[in-house]
Amino acid sequence: xxxxxxxxxxxxxxxxxxxxxxxxxxxxxxxxxxxxxxxxxxxxxxxxxxxxxxxxxxxxxxxxxxxxxxxxxxxxxxxxxxxxxxxxxxxxxxxxxxxxxxxxxxxxxxxxxxxxxxxxxxxxxxxxxxxxxxxxxxxxxxxxxxxxxxxxxxxxxxxxxxxxxxxxxxxxxxxxxxxxxxxxxxxxxxxxxxxxxxxxxxxxxxxxxxxxxxxxxxxxxxxxxxxxxxxxxxxxxxxxxxxxxxxxxxxxxxxxxxxxxxxxxxxxxxxxxxxxxxxxxxxxxxxxxxxxxxxxxxxxxxxxxxxxxxx
Amino acid sequence: xxxxxxxxxxxxxxxxxxxxxxxxxxxxxxxxxxxxxxxxxxxxxxxxxxxxxxxxxxxxxxxxxxxxxxxxxxxxxxxxxxxxxxxxxxxxxxxxxxxxxxxxxxxxxxxxxxxxxxxxxxxxxxxxxxxxxxxxxxxxxxxxxxxxxxxxxxxxxxxxxxxxxxxxxxxxxxxxxxxxxxxxxxxxxxxxxxxxxxxxxxxxxxxxxxxxxxxxxxxxxxxxxxxxxxxxxxxxxxxxxxxxxxxxxxxxxxxxxxxxxxxxxxxxxxxxxxxxxxxxxxxxxxxxxxxxxxxxxxxxxxxxxxxxxxx
Lengths: 311, 311
Fold this sequence. Notes:
Two copies of one chain form a homodimer.
Chain A (H helix, E strand, L loop, with lengths): L9 E4 L3 E7 L2 E8 L1 H9 L6 E8 L4 H9 L2 E9 L5 E7 L6 E7 L19 E4 L4 H9 L7 E5 L2 H6 L1 H8 L4 E5 H8 L4 H9 L5 E5 L5 E5 L2 E5 L13 H16 L4 H18 L13 H15 L4
Parallel strand pairs in A: 1-4, 1-8, 2-6, 4-5, 8-9, 9-10, 10-11
Antiparallel strand pairs in A: 2-3, 6-7, 11-12, 12-13
Helix pairs in contact in A: 1-8, 3-5, 6-7, 8-9, 9-10
């Protein structure tokens, strides 16, 4: 008999897509993108037991799927629709990189997506629901076996505008909600993030993570607040996927440690922030595909140094 | 012979004024304000050897001056102009508290202010130049004896618009510059704060502090970056004076410890942030007048807890 480290299995859902992106640093056309892609790549540095549930057309490159499989991502839940096209998004970032215009959103295969969670993934203990129609996120929850340890939901202002009641329903079923500061204000009707968190934690989740981009992230769990800074960077090349990469690092680290203490949740936020800081250094998943564990540890240490003082 | 803790003396210059302020929480008329007032009150919790240089009219309440003297503020450098009025500012904050409209600026005594640093204050080792016309800040530096250990300058975008060359001249003569993020971008022409800091540190200062309001403060010294968060607050009652209170706590703590190591500079930033977090809890100097050392230490501990994690 041998001792084995058992990583808890992780289920990720969200888009797997093509992006055309323009930033002040350049333009890339039809590169690999999608929330679930970023989440899975980021999480793959912490666990190799990942089940992905998503949909693509037959235009999606096979070598990209192979590369994910090589990272431990099980694609049994990825539907490949023959003769159809993958989801496509195109956007242009403003000079400050904090805002962007969406130029094109072609739903394609996503227009009629009915996620099917493979039998073996229904008992996954950690669930990352990437940004998608709240009703689809709910459909995934309906298929789980009820033994989950942590369900994390990411969403955005668009769903607050067009599907608020559906969104509130699915929010009430998860443990952790991740949104940005403006979304926290919109969802709660409170400007102060402290008050916003109180309102949102009444909706069901035990934990709220407020992503503030270059200003870091705030974690609210019960009455406790934790502040993870963002690393000040000389260049933010392309912010696309940073939030998803954060989420992937966060839940990947938790799945690999299987420790949901308040202390470990804080560490997971820092891990997620560190992963996001890599993501923005290059277009698409370029930087996320070339990381080493040593680089990740070094980056996490930088986050520690950044806020460390003796009193 | 007895051992004595010798606090280094601190010289503060800036406005001593009346403010009329409107925030979503209410309106106060002709309350005590001014950069130098906030700086001095805040610093007085750390040192009682403060020399203030400023100007008021004979409308300024004597009991307010007495209250400052009781805190160890030497007012020999405060000119009281008979028959004239004190500087007056009126502003209204927007709902988000991050922006405000200036409604009235009556320079009054400030229109013709020629600061005279009293003989005994010319050898002060710590100098806090509050926001004022750069030429006036320069006049104060001209009167010092050259034995200073730390000179800190605060300024604002207005002077970058109307007196950039004067401003650059005085910036080249100080050790520490404190400005907000938009001002750092304007002064440097760089959007990235990391790049902005490089440009600004070439202008003369050894240290740049970028104040980001509810997002905390960034400290750049050499190649090192330190991030002090702001305490997330349920209510920001009135942000007026928060930056000056930060500066007062920062330099007051340094003058009292007389330790300019990189580590102690970081502590000073946290002390300043803690003081600023009290300032915004009430209008005018109300909160700053009623603090206890125990409350301050407790608040500093909160800042430590806010960012603490084990890796």
